Amino acid sequence: MTPEAREETVLEAVQRRRELVNDAIDADLPIGDPERLYEASRYLLEAGGKRLRPAILLLTAEALLDVPLLGEDYREFPTLVEGEPPIDLMKAAVSVEVIQSFTLIHDDIMDQDEMRRGVQSVHVEYDPETAILAGDTLYSKAFEIMIAAGAPSARSMDALDTLASTCTRICEGQSLDLEFETRPTVGTDEYLDMVDRKTAVLYAASASIPAILLGADEHTRNALEEYGHAVGKAFQIHDDILDLIVSSDDLGKQRGSDLVEGKQTIVTHHAREQGVDVDGLITGDDPDAVSQEAIDEAVAVLEEAGSIDYGRTLAREYVEEGKEYLQVLPDNDARARLEQVADYLIERGY
Amino acid sequence: MTPEAREETVLEAVQRRRELVNDAIDADLPIGDPERLYEASRYLLEAGGKRLRPAILLLTAEALLDVPLLGEDYREFPTLVEGEPPIDLMKAAVSVEVIQSFTLIHDDIMDQDEMRRGVQSVHVEYDPETAILAGDTLYSKAFEIMIAAGAPSARSMDALDTLASTCTRICEGQSLDLEFETRPTVGTDEYLDMVDRKTAVLYAASASIPAILLGADEHTRNALEEYGHAVGKAFQIHDDILDLIVSSDDLGKQRGSDLVEGKQTIVTHHAREQGVDVDGLITGDDPDAVSQEAIDEAVAVLEEAGSIDYGRTLAREYVEEGKEYLQVLPDNDARARLEQVADYLIERGY
Question: Which of A290, A341, B284, B324 has its CA 20 to 30 A from that of A76?
Answer without folding.
Answer: A341
